Amino acid sequence: MKIAKADALMWFRFFAELDEDEGLGPRQMEIAYSVLSQIETAQEKRLDALKKQIPGLKSLQGRTLYVGPDALFPRGCTGCLLGTGLSAVRRTHVCNANCPFCYDYGVLDEQMPVGEGFFEIGGCRYRPEDLPLLLDSYAKPSGVAYVYLEPFMEIEVYEPVIRAFHERGVYQHMYTNGTLCTPQNLRMLAEAGLDELRFNLGASMCADRVIENMATASRLLPAVGIETPMTPELYETFMQKKDRILSTGIRFMNCAELHLNENNLPNYLGENLYMTRLGYLSPTFSREGTLRLMATADREGWPICVHDCSNMTKFARDLAQKAKEGGWFGQSSWQMEFDRIPFEAFLPILEDESFQFLEEEPLPVGFRPGDIVI
After folding, report:
1. Does residue 293 lie within any of the structural domains?
2. Same structural domain, 238 and 285
3. Radius of gyration for the chain, computed over Cα atoms and rounded to the nearest angstrom
4. Strand 119-121 and strand 87-90: pairing?
């Protein structure tokens, strides 16, 4: 069913008014899925048009897109997409920032600690002295990533863990907002064996002190780059400070497609949103901004790799990881991060006259106004 935009708006307005605990029947779900498909198909056509404006666009074995020198594509991303996936090491449950795009926006003070002296790896808790046993018991991962939330809040506790993985030849990358970096703690990370540090430049909106910290990190660590959800605010601020940022010695910029959950969705209500493969929900501006930035990087020959870390990239990552784990054909954990479709969130894009569906058909019998739809 290629539902017309006017009919889609009518039905989604109706669905948005239903009680949250009132489920939809099979035909109603058919309507809902048709609307989401129409929106996604139209948005992909717009994205394809932007890709055609990037002559130097490259693909990493069909998993993701990038521009720039092949040698600068982040090795952490290669391991994530082509290796054993994203092996997360979790420790710090607090943060000194409050970003509207954060998945934990509004509930940062409710995040449970991992536990004194512990690091969470694969859903289990380990002390640093347990890592030799862990590494002897499993095949060596292609890499590990230190995530959740701001590690520099207690960066000194990471040193023995980084050193243990480094001694076993495991590639390691870490995420930070960069505001708490110092020459001393960056040097400690380098001496411990951290391979790659990624700055969430959007957390500080390209603050000058963070740019300075990126330059310091680039002198000390093997690989330094940017990884930030792409927003219009980041795009504008980055372009204003582009020359200074590119001169810091960073190797790459991962432009993540901003995706929303129950916590951060209220910050973006009113924006045009679409859903990728009935999974991640994102503002249309996010990947569009990434592709515009990549077009500029390609045209101007930036000395870094700019990576389109899109929802489809993460879709590919999940498939690759499940396959490596021995999952059955087609197995994936890709899913919507909401208990129910947030119908009200799609009203702005359905009300936007500039956003048109590619094909439209009249509603069939049983789906029209006045018909009983269950």
Report:
1. yes
2. yes
3. 22
4. antiparallel
Return the amino acid letter for 113.
P
If asked whether residues 292 and 372 sit together in one domain, one would say: no
Classified as helix, coil or strand, 19 is coil
Tell whether 262 and 212 lie within a shared domain. yes
Query: What is the spatial distance between Cα 206 and Cα 282, in angstroms, rounded to a whole number?
Result: 22
Tell me how far apart the alpha carbons of residues 89 and 103 are, in angstroms, rounded to a whole number: 17
- Are 170 and 238 in a shared domain? yes
The 10s digit of each residue's pLDDT in 290-342 is 999 999 999 999 999 999 999 999 999 999 888 888 899 999 999 999 999 99
Asked if 188 and 284 sit in the same domain, the reply is yes
CA distances from 121 to 129, 258, 332, 340 (A): 14, 25, 20, 30
Mean pLDDT, residues 9-13 taken together: 97
Structure tokens given for 85: 């996936």
Residues 277 and 354 in one domain: no
User: Residue 93 phi/psi, 5° resolution?
Assistant: -105, 15
Q: Which two tokens stand for residue 371?
A: 């018909």
Do 278 and 359 lie in a common domain?
no
Q: Shortest CA distance to 229 belongs to which of 272, 251, 198, 269?
A: 198
For residue 188, count other CB atoms closer than 10 A to its CB: 17
Q: What is the chain's length? A: 374
**Residue (of 74, 301, 29, 363) closest to 195 by Cα position:** 74
Range of the domain at 47: 1-53+342-374
